[in-house]
Structure formats: structure tokens, C-alpha cells
């Protein structure tokens, strides 16, 4: 029930980190995967690695599309090229996210806050609209949005980012209601995962940060990817509108001080 052979996935922001791990997981389950990122050279390297290490060397199952999620034109090109290359778009993983502003909201640059919401929320809806029109509206499919535990509980540090992820979680629920029964929409909310994106969150030391987690370690990209692989498979056929925490238990402590 977790086999994805014959299905096509589009994973945004997949040149490294969580996005790359998700693409690798979906490839390992048999899907063909289109991956996007802003930097063409880095993306091409990632696509080659994905094909060699996770698709049995089959370069035909991996498509690299240089794209900026905040650009409507890029989003449309990504969806169009995916359907043209593989003939379908069964899975959409909205992984792209930014966090250009930290700290006290009274000092926040509103331009940066607007950009955060535009990329983390509006672009996600834009991708879903395009996937719906191009394939899923007629054939069905699965959408997974990568949220954050910062969208479930206040951090005080990454406040604007957290607010955008809270909006993304609510968007996930609204889409699940509106697009069912043929399209399932879920979200995954990681805590601190060891990626370049999250480095600032454990700058004082990985062990010190992990000490606040019941499982005493930070997340790995593969921890998130395996959950995404499950959610888009038939094994999760009665799940939609759900936000799955992948957080090493940190929310169970009642605080996100470590985040």
C-alpha cells in the first residue's frame, strides 16, 4: 500500500535538506519525481544524485526544473513541465519556505514579513491551484504541505515564520475540506531538523538544543521524508486535513524554547 510506482510527484525546494530527502523517499517508493529550486547548477547536481542513488540510475524518472516558488510564472512552468514530461501529477509536496526575519515583531520589516507569507502561504495555494487545474481536479491526487511546530506553538524568536506556518496549517485544513474526496491534503510539522536552513536554531550546539527533546536528538531530513511518503501512499487513504508532528516529542514538553 506504500508503493508509488506509476505516480508522478512534484517536490518544491528539493535541491537539499528536507526537500531532497522527500524526493529521494518518493523515488525509492517507485514514483517519478520533478524537483525545483532557484539555483540551476545546484539543482542539476541534486537531480543527478537522486537518479543515481534513489532511482537505480534511471535519469528518466527525475526532472529538474529551475523555479522560484514566489513567481507565478515559475510555478506554472513547473506544473506544466511535470505533466508534459511524465503525463500526470499525482503528488504535490510544497516544501519551499523562507524565514528572512527574526525576533521582536515590533521591529520586523513588513516587507520581509509580506515576503514570508507570500512564499510560505500564497505560493503554496498557487501551486495547489495549478496542480488542480492541470491534473488533480479530474484525476485526484495528494498534497502535502511542509509546515512547522512553530505554526502550532509560539516561539518568540521566529514569530513571523511561525505565523506563516500557522496560516499554512489552516490552509491545509480548508483545502482538505474543499478538495475531498478525490484529493487528500495533509501537512507535516517538523521541529528542528539538521539542515542548512535551520542551522541558526542550533547555533549554540546540537547537543545543547537536543537536550530539550524527549528523544534527545534533532531531526534528520529522512525523519520527515518517511512521514511524507506514508501520507501520499494508499496506506493513509483515510487521512486528510491532518498536520502530523515530527518533532522528537518537543511539543509534549509544553514549550518550544528549544526552537
Automatic annotation (TrEMBL):
Pfam families from the UniProt entry: adh_short_C2
Superkingdom classification of source: Bacteria
Protein keywords: Oxidoreductase
Keyword Lyase: no
Key word Oxidoreductase present: yes
Molecular function GO labels: oxidoreductase activity
Database matches in InterPro entries: NAD(P)-bd_dom_sf (IPR036291), Sc_DH/Rdtase_CS (IPR020904), SDR_fam (IPR002347)
Family that this chain belongs to: Belongs to the short-chain dehydrogenases/reductases (SDR) family.
PANTHER family found in the cross-reference section: DEHYDROGENASE/REDUCTASE (SDR FAMILY) MEMBER 4, DEHYDROGENASE_REDUCTASE 4
Name of the protein: SDR family oxidoreductase
Source organism per UniProt: Pseudonocardia broussonetiae
Organism ancestry: Bacteria, Bacillati, Actinomycetota, Actinomycetes, Pseudonocardiales
